[in-house]
Write a structure and sequence with these properties.
CATH topology of the largest domain: Lysozyme
CATH architecture of the largest domain: Orthogonal Bundle
Low-confidence stretches: 1-25, 247-279, 476-489
Number of helices: 13
CATH class of the largest domain: Mainly Alpha
Largest sheet: 8 strands, antiparallel
Number of domains: 3
Distance between the termini: 104 Å
Order of helices and strands: HHHHHHHHHEEEEHHEEEEEEHEEEHEEE
Strand content: 15-25%
Mean pLDDT: 79
Helix content: 10-25%
Shape: elongated
Structural class: alpha+beta
């Protein structure tokens, strides 16, 4: 006879064992090991679901638009992968399967794509409701990771795979097989398959600190997805403030480009506005999401609006394509866009062009106001008591000199000194003709130096107010080089 007390204890132990047996699912010790996932390959019953899919948000959006009635959710699926480490292609396939390609009542009425908590006895009643599809994707991904794909989770089946999940996720024993088939059938587009190739960006007009630049980006090949974003990054090459701190130095002939019959604007730096503070390190590189819009139907050009850096100088403008969630594209989707050097001009700035004239024995010097401040030709203040007011008026003068051996020649020959005859507003240019340079200097090859002094103030344009270039008579058979700034960039 068993004592009553011992009998009750035995029953309690048996009950506890039964409860544990019901609450904790058994693990199949013969479960195959998880196999690595390779981006773009099939997802099988034994693929490791804790893997990087390599898919892009824009490609998921395109797929959902063509195959389902769901809105763009690529960002939500990719974010869930980054946050919980679950393969986004698997999550997409599971959502499509559970929601009937987005058409199920639970999906439409409750933003519940996975049938979360939709118990068989009354799915519509028990299914969880969410404010958005994105909230449902995040919550379900977290639940799957914690309960099914993590050792020690309530429904951990031995491996982070569909075969393991299938034991406890659904009353259907074919759930994992169906999800695997859908995941394998999903075709997500790749940018590289469209054979897209970009030309270097083209920046329109003069650019000043803090302004919005219009950047034209052309390409050949297939179409660029609507959801793709662009990011512009400014990389400083040489700041005007650094050049002014270092002082003026000349450019030797060997530093100049060897181009025949070509012209190029100089890159004379402009001083910042008086009293302007030197920018900090955070101002030197500015990364901003550019607003992209198409220019004309069927054209192969995109126009970007990009905010310029805060400090004048020379920069390398790099444009990068980003996913629709504004994160870097997967490696298989990345397409290189060439960088381009861009000059950001200060408030007081000029550029110079020096090119051969039509006759070939002279030169044409063109000075352009590239700043935001008008360059005055003459001082507005005339001493009222002066007998000859014009004699005391401060003028802005342009001087062009020629040297035989280089810009450091101790005895340069002055070719012309001319005043500005009118104020030079921003963007305006003035040209000076210098005919017969060989006859004036007696040399077939000359270093031409151009200097602009505003109102007699050598600091008005900063220490880099000049430019220089080699010039040779066309009949001499020697090379003629384009104008270039004489400052050290």
């Amino acid at each position: 006879m068993i004592p009553v007390r011992r009998f009750r204890v035995t029953l309690a132990v048996l009950a506890a064992v039964l409860v544990v047996g019901v609450a904790v699912p058994s693990v199949d010790a013969r479960m195959p090991r998880a196999r690595p996932y390779h981006p773009g390959r099939h997802i099988t019953l034994d693929t490791n679901l804790l893997s990087v899919s390599g898919v892009s948000a824009w490609a998921i959006d395109e797929y959902l638009k063509t195959a389902t009635s769901l809105p763009p959710l690529g960002k939500a699926f990719v974010d869930a992968e980054r946050k919980y480490g679950i393969n986004a292609r698997f999550l997409l396939a599971a959502a499509v399967h559970e929601s009937g390609w987005g058409r199920s009542y639970i999906a439409r009425a409750k933003h519940n794509l996975f049938g979360y908590n939709a118990y068989d006895r009354d799915p519509v009643r028990f299914a969880s409701a969410y404010a958005t599809f994105a909230a449902n994707i995040d919550d379900t991904a977290r639940f799957i990771k914690d309960m099914y794909l993590t050792r020690g989770g309530r429904w951990w089946g031995g491996q982070p795979t569909l075969r393991s999940m299938q034991q406890f996720w659904s009353s259907s024993h074919t759930w994992g097989i169906n999800v695997s088939r859908i995941a394998t059938s999903i075709h997500l587009a790749k940018l590289k398959g469209r054979k897209i190739s970009f030309a270097a960006p083209v920046v329109g007009g003069l650019l000043h600190p803090g302004e919005r630049a219009s950047v034209h980006l052309g390409w050949v090949g297939g179409s660029i997805p609507t959801g793709v974003e662009f990011v512009a990054t400014w990389e400083p090459i040489a700041l005007d403030s650094d050049a002014m701190t270092a002082g003026t130095s000349s450019v030797v002939a060997g530093d100049l480009p060897r181009l025949v019959g070509a012209t190029a604007p100089s890159t004379a730096p402009a001083n910042p506005s008086p009293g302007a503070a030197r920018p900090g390190a955070a101002d030197l590189v500015r990364s901003t999401i550019a607003t992209a819009r198409r220019v004309g139907a069927g054209t192969r050009r995109i126009e970007l609006l990009v905010l310029a850096p805060a400090a004048p100088g020379r920069y390398l403008l790099n444009v990068e394509m980003r996913d629709s969630d504004r994160r870097p594209l997967p490696a298989a989707d990345r397409i290189r866009i060439p960088g381009v050097e861009v000059r950001v001009w200060g408030d007081r700035a000029v550029s110079y062009d020096i090119e051969p004239d039509v006759a070939g024995d002279g030169a044409v010097v063109r000075i352009t106001n590239t700043g935001r401040t008008t360059i005055p030709a003459i001082s507005p203040r005339i001493p009222p008591a002066s007998r000859d007011p014009e004699a005391e008026v401060s003028r802005s003068l342009v001087t062009v000199t020629a040297s035989a051996s280089g810009p450091a020649n101790a005895a340069p020959r002055q070719l012309i000194t001319a005043p500005l005859i009118a104020d030079l507003p921003p963007g305006a240019s003035v040209s000076l003709d210098l005919p017969g340079i060989k006859a004036l200097t007696g040399m077939t090859r000359n270093w031409l130096s151009v200097d602009l002094i505003v109102l007699g103030d050598a600091t008005w344009l900063g220490p880099y107010r000049s430019a220089g270039a080699w010039f040779s008579d066309a009949g001499s058979g020697q090379q003629s080089l384009p104008g270039r700034s004489s400052q050290p960039d």
